[in-house]
Amino acid sequence: MSTKPHDAHRDPQISKLFQQWNRITNKILRSESAPQDFGTGGLLFSSEIHTVCAIGNNPGINITDLSAQLGVTKGAISKLAKKMEEKDLIERYHKPGNDKEILLSLTPKGKKVHIGHREYHAKEFERLSVEIEKLTEEQVRFLFEVFGFIEEMIDSTLPNREGTS
User: Could you tell me which residue ranges the HTH marR-type domain spans (predicted)?
Assistant: First the structure.
């Protein structure tokens, strides 16, 4: 990717890309802020369902690793874990032989939510997956490069806090 600075206001194509990017991020933010039911009759916010999924994909994960995986602080994960334990979605337990380390796993209700979320994404991303499969390896690598750059850019603007990566 070029490191040459661009003036988005002078280049209509880049300006259009930024406008589309802003529309996409605004739609994602709206979508992420609305709680959804994933098969248990209870509404879950994005942070809750993504935490359930991370734990479901990594049974026995600890707070530190979960915070790094989700890009949030250990304190935020601890609060969220307590809330989700109250909703009977996860259980917290101590690592055998280590009373300090807390591990997390899904309850049967949490497993049901995890499966419901997978089914939701299977339907939601089916069309996107079909389109991505049409791309060449070079095009996919380019997308990873662009997404990586965007992630780095966003990371550089976030406050430097414990547990974010």
Answer: 11-152
SS (H, E, C) the chain: CCCCCCCCCCCHHHHHHHHHHHHHHHHHHHHHHCCEECCCCCEECHHHHHHHHHHHHCCCEEHHHHHHHHCCCHHHHHHHHHHHHHCCCEEEEEECCEEEEEEEEECHHHHHHHHHHHHHHHHHCHHHHHHHHCCCHHHHHHHHHHHHHHHHHHHHHCCCCCCCC
pLDDT of residue 28: 85
Contact 51, 80 (CB under 8 A): yes
- 3-47 per-position pLDDT tens digit: 555 565 568 888 998 899 999 989 888 887 889 999 899 999 988
Go through the domains of the chain in sequence order and give each one's CATH number. 35-124 (1.10.10.10)
Residues in Cβ contact with 18 at an 8 Å cutoff, skipping those fewer than 6 apart? 8
In 3D, which of 77, 58, 60 has the Cα closest to residue 161?
77
- Per the CB < 8 A criterion, the answer to whether 40 and 116 are in contact is yes
- Distance between terminal CA atoms of the chain? 23
> Is the Cβ–Cβ distance between 162 and 74 less than 8 Å?
yes
